[in-house]
Design goal:
The protein is of the alpha+beta class. It contains one helix and four strands. Strands 1-2-3-4 form a four-stranded antiparallel sheet, with helices on one face.
Length: about 60
């Protein structure tokens, strides 16, 4: 596994994330819009060359 990057929820994901994963991230963020997510971050890692994105609440997208 290789560390990618972290960014705050609601900010633009890194450019190297595929479009289909960007759509999943946007959907999760819409679901969480009513919550207080201040201070939450996404973490991007790479597992066997594929992106894995995890939100601070444990939501994981591949």
């Amino acid at each position: 596994m290789q560390l990618g990057s972290r960014w705050p929820i609601g900010d633009e994901p890194p450019a190297r994330i595929p479009d289909e994963l960007r759509a999943q991230i946007a959907a999760v963020e819409r679901e969480r819009a009513a919550r207080d997510t201040s201070g939450w971050h996404w973490t991007l890692t790479w597992l066997e060359g594929r992106p894995v994105v995890e939100l601070d609440d444990g939501t994981t997208l591949t």
